Amino acid sequence: MGDTSPTGVTVRTERQDDDAAIDVVVASAFGQRDEADLVRALRSSTAWLPQLSLVAELDHRVVGHAAFTRAHVDGVPVLALAPVSVIPDAQHRGIGTALVEDGISRARADGESLIVVLGDPAYYGRFGFTAAAAMGVSGPFGPIVEFQCLPLADAFPTGTMRYPAAFRVDDPA
Ligand SMILES: CC(C)(COP(=O)(O)OP(=O)(O)OC[C@H]1O[C@@H](n2cnc3c(N)ncnc32)[C@H](O)[C@@H]1OP(=O)(O)O)[C@@H](O)C(=O)NCCC(=O)NCCS
Rounded to whole angstroms, how far apart are CA atoms 113 and 63? Predict the structure, then answer.
């Protein structure tokens, strides 16, 4: 955690003055404002966990960001991973992997029991994420393979996942 990888990238917890740089990174990674606005909304909500808002620095420049925020499965606290962003000219160098792996390590050290993510199984599978439905976790999107989870403990909650309100996903629960 917080180490410098062989690629020269450092992953660390965000600082208060990182807001603007994170906003630029998220908007440039996705090529639109939606996810950057989501980060802003999450940051001003009770779901925001500053210690799990992680930035990747390369040559003292913020080039990546990952947010793990507070969600719930049947009322039990879990983590939602989203969004993960790496600026286009720094992609494919392992920075996204370093951010997600660092966050998983921190979450495990914090005693978290489950991380949920909506994303491509080809990407998140490398970290151990598997289809949430098969693990007994349902979400607002139905049983799609992109809805995945990573248990961090033998005992983890099952049931219905509720995203933080800032995600504005319909919740049939
Ligand atoms: C997804 C993202 C965070 C990955 O960051 P990265 O630093 O390029 O990732 P890494 O270098 O650790 O891993 C790259 C590998 O991930 C895979 N990958 C990258 N983006 C992917 C995607 N959207 N879906 C599936 N696989 C993807 C590639 O196969 C790549 O492997 P390769 O380098 O051998 O070709 C980055 O591409 C990004 O910001 N994309 C735009 C935003 C986005 O889609 N975020 C994810 C959803 S929240």
Answer: 29
Say what angle helices 34-43 and 19-30 make with each other, to 10 degrees: 150
pLDDT tens digits for 3-26?
556 578 999 999 999 999 999 999
Q: Give distance in angstroms: CA of 117 to centre of ligand 1.
A: 14
**Which numbered atom of ligand 1 lies nearest the CA of 119?**
47
Q: Specify the amino acid at residue 58.
A: L
Instruction: Please indicate, yes or no, if residue 4 is contained in any of the structural domains.
Output: no
pTM for the whole structure: 0.93
Give domain status of residue 1, yes or no: no
Q: Is residue 173 part of a domain?
A: no
Alpha helices in the chain (DSSP H): 19-30, 34-43, 95-109, 121-124
In total, how many domains does the chain have? 1
CATH number at residue 162: 3.40.630.30
In a domain, 139, yes or no: yes
Q: Is 30 in the pocket of ligand 1 (CB under 6 A)?
A: yes
CA of 98, closest atom in ligand 1: 12
The pLDDT tens digits of the residues spanning 108-125 come to 999 999 999 999 999 999
16 Cβ contact partners less than 8 Å away, ≥ 6 residues apart: none
Ligand 1 atom closest to the Cα of residue 91 is 8
Which domain does 118 fall in, by range? 9-167
